[in-house]
Design goal:
Helix content is 33%, strand content 24%. The protein has 791 residues and is an alpha+beta fold.
Length: 791
């Protein structure tokens, strides 16, 4: 018996999972768990390989596995329509009206004309699309006890991406689910326990809730048809959209071990089976008439009919990515002994705890890994068990997607950074068309929301004229620069990043307006999503964010050319533009103003912090960087936003990120405490946008790893600072695997807020300035060498 247990344990390590319920009760670190079922989809533990994903929830004997795919959208019109109005001819009049302080009239002029043209094109909705679940795999245990036994346990192992349910049949049955990175399928494994056999009914069913009109979309008529079919060994699902030629198909290969299988009206009934293995793939289609069912069935039929053979290659790839970086605050035993409900109750009562910090940091990276595929994560990532996601669950380009991918390269996940960069490159033709048609400029214009297939700017309206937001493109190409610098990839810098910044410089050359003061002004301008007092529109001139991004574009362009030794005949021209942008303004409160133009008074009560772009994600202003007057003004501006105390989770984290750059530990601690005590975290360890579990939204959980990294390490070319914003009140611990500019890898250990050990592996030879608690030293690095850093 002892030998058998040892062999089982060894096999569990190989596979990255445990086979028996009794052996999971003291599961390893990186596994979150609960002894209660997820009664709603928001509390479901999730899996994902970037493209496919699942959410496991429901009664143990009547369970739903909501299956999702990143490319499923109900669209308001045919995705192939070129829906970009031409309004460039109106730009002179828009500028004239803004200069006369007739901002509302300027807004109405351009948005009314754009709306007219959109209607003529057949694009009648300003909310372009809604992501939705594919379907539910409904699992009914027909011979199970209706009561949940004391052996019930559900868990998510972040290290291998497997979510498991023990006691799934009201007895000792086991269910394991993962989204394979190796085979690109969802894998579901059911195993009978306690000497019993499985008697189950499996069906693919539409996820409940598709009804009514939501954000201009009639959900009742969203599909031409949906159909679910069953035959021995197979379940299929087909759907075709109403307003778009696309659709999707789902194919599930069902493999019982023992017993019998027969078709029923609603699916497949399996009796007397020891195990059941299900391989499920979702296939989006540009045209629903081009079925791939036969080809997918053949591919699934060729896959191994062994759970362990499917798991091992997936777990190897997923686990290697996940374990590259680890935040260890000494909580390994508490992972084993603390259910997620207890951990969340603790932070509600006590504020931030070491266990929560460990788990939310790990979960942020797990979700990023699991939701970066063809696209980076939108508001809900690839998940969602409903048909009415807030703000259409979209790709939102004015802080949400920016925060969502902010930890990618720095936390040593180049695959996730690459997902973002390839997605942006895919959208560039649409962004080019936006700039040409709306503003008559070269370069790019970012859509606030866009169809991920094309990037066209179709979401706008009176009071929010997004076609006038010049700064969006510069903000959203900055991650390219960070990625290349953190990986020290000069080839990427030269071939992919530098051309983007040159195109942005061309945009500004076409768009900037020189006025009598001999300065180039940004007109029109937007500070997302805020309107100055006295106007009902976001439309303005010289929003601080827009000026800051223009300044950054020209600065980084010149910096990259110098670093790469590139000779550019236009360098003097770019330097001229940089030298003649407006200076930032300090207002009567001593704060960095949100608009450079003094005729726009500040509005402090707002969740966005656009005017603090030079602090984060930019790096023009920091506690030891920039003009002293501007540093103090930035701190004052942050004070004002902090006093407002936004209810949005991402707003709290954004404030904390900027506070870390300014060395303001009190704001970090307070906002983390606010975040802990307001019920922003579901029992799935996924976050909500608003307190009390309102609006499933990943911005906060995905950006918290970046915040913890910024608290522990600041990095820029040729310089790092250690423990710049880590309070001594927080736990002792260590962080391993963080990426620095230059491509270097750093491991840290600290105690009582003080550095005890730091180890740096040099990726290249260079001189690195290291700062710590007001002290600094210079380290001459040699590529491939490892250095111990001590102060």
């Amino acid at each position: 018996m002892k030998t058998k247990r040892i062999l089982t344990w060894l096999w569990a390590i190989i596979c990255g999972t445990y086979a028996l319920a009794s052996e999971t009760e003291n599961s390893e670190r990186w596994t979150i768990w609960s002894s209660s079922p997820a009664s709603r989809w928001e509390d479901a533990f999730v899996t994902g390989n970037g493209r496919h994903g699942t959410m496991v929830w429901g009664n143990p004997i009547d369970e739903h596995i909501t299956c999702v795919h990143e490319e499923l959208f109900i669209r308001g019109w045919d995705r192939h329509l070129k829906t970009v109005p031409s309004t460039a001819s109106l730009l002179p009049e828009v500028r004239r009206l803004i200069n006369k302080r007739e901002n509302n009239e300027a807004d109405s002029l351009i948005t009314t004309e754009a709306e007219r043209q959109m209607q003529e094109m057949g694009a009648s909705q300003r909310w372009p699309l809604i992501p939705h679940p594919a379907f539910d795999l409904h699992i009914q245990h027909l011979n199970a006890s209706p009561k949940t036994t004391n052996t019930y346990r559900r868990q998510l192992n972040m290290k291998n991406g497997v979510t498991s349910v023990f006691g799934c049949d009201g007895n000792q049955g086991i269910e394991e689910v993962f989204s394979s990175r190796a085979q690109n399928v969802n894998v579901i494994h059911l195993k009978a326990g306690n000497g019993k056999k499985l008697h189950i009914l499996l069906s693919l069913e539409e996820t409940p809730g598709r009804k009514g009109v939501y954000l201009e979309h009639n959900l009742d008529s969203a599909f031409l048809f949906t159909e679910s079919k069953a035959e021995p060994g197979w379940l299929t699902y087909r759907a075709a959209y109403q307003k778009d030629p696309g659709g999707y198909e789902g194919v599930a290969r069902v493999i019982p071990k023992g017993g019998s299988m027969r078709r029923q009206a609603k699916g497949l009934e399996i009796t007397e089976a020891e195990e059941v293995l299900i391989l499920l793939r979702i296939s989006p289609q540009e045209n629903w008439k081009n079925s791939t069912l036969s080809a997918v069935k053949k591919e699934l039929a060729d896959m191994p009919a062994s759970y362990s053979q499917l798991l091992v290659p997936h777990a190897k790839v997923h686990g290697e990515m996940f374990l590259r970086m680890q935040l260890d605050l000494g909580q390994a035993d508490r992972w084993k002994n603390t259910p997620i409900e207890q951990m969340l109750s603790d932070i509600y009562q006590k504020g931030m705890t070491p266990l929560f910090m460990e788990q939310i940091h790990a979960m942020g990276r797990y979700l990023l890994i699991s939701s970066c595929g063809k696209y980076p994560p939108p508001l809900q990532g690839i998940w969602g068990g409903g048909w009415k996601p807030a703000w259409i669950g979209g790709f939102v380009w004015d802080s949400n997607i920016n925060l969502a991918i902010s930890a990618a390269a720095m936390s040593n996940l180049p695959e996730c950074a690459e997902s973002y960069c390839k997605y942006v490159e895919h959208l560039l033709p649409g962004w080019h068309l936006n700039a040409t048609n709306y503003l008559g400029c070269r370069g790019f214009l970012v859509a606030h929301y866009n169809d991920p297939a094309n990037g066209y700017l179709t979401h706008f309206g009176q009071s929010f004229p997004w076609m006038c937001w010049a700064g969006g493109a510069g903000w959203n190409i900055r991650p390219f620069y960070e990625y290349a610098m953190l990986m020290d990839d000069d080839t990427m810098l030269k071939k992919r990043v530098l051309p983007l910044y040159r195109e942005m410089a061309n945009f500004y050359e076409d768009f900037l307006v020189m006025e009598k003061d001999s300065l180039y002004h940004i007109l029109p301008s937007i500070s997302p999503e805020n309107a100055a007092y006295g106007t009902n529109t976001w439309l303005s001139r010289d929003a601080t964010m827009d000026v800051a991004i223009a300044r950054e574009v020209f600065s980084l362009l010149l910096e990259m050319e110098q670093k790469l030794g590139v000779i550019d005949k236009d360098d003097k021209k770019w330097q001229h533009y940089l030298n003649h942008l407006p200076n930032y303004r300090i207002n009567q409160d001593g704060a960095l103003a949100e608009w450079v133009d003094p005729s726009y008074p500040d509005v402090y009560n707002h969740r966005h912090l656009s005017h603090l772009y030079p602090v984060f994600p930019g790096s023009q202003i920091r506690k030891d960087k920039g003009e002293p007057q501007l540093r103090e003004a930035a701190k004052k501006a942050l004070d004002k936003r902090f006093e407002f105390d936004t209810s949005s989770a991402h707003g709290l984290i954004h404030v904390a990120l900027q506070a870390a750059r300014l060395g303001d530990l009190d704001k970090i601690k307070t906002n983390l405490d606010r975040f802990s005590r307001r019920h922003y975290v579901y029992n799935s360890l996924v976050t909500s946008h608003d307190p009390e579990h309102q609006v499933y939204n990943l911005d906060a959980v995905l950006s918290l790893p970046r915040l913890f990294m910024e608290m522990l390490v600041y990095t820029e070319p040729g310089k790092i600072e250690l423990l710049p914003a880590w309070s001594e009140e927080y736990a002792d611990g260590k962080l391993t695997g963080i990426r620095l500019y230059g491509g270097h890898l750093l491991n840290l250990e600290w105690k009582a807020g003080n550095l005890t050990e730091a180890q740096l592996k040099a990726f290249k030879s260079e001189t690195l300035q290291i700062h710590y608690q007001g002290k600094k030293k210079s380290l001459q690095l040699r590529k491939g060498e490892t250095y111990q850093i001590k102060f």
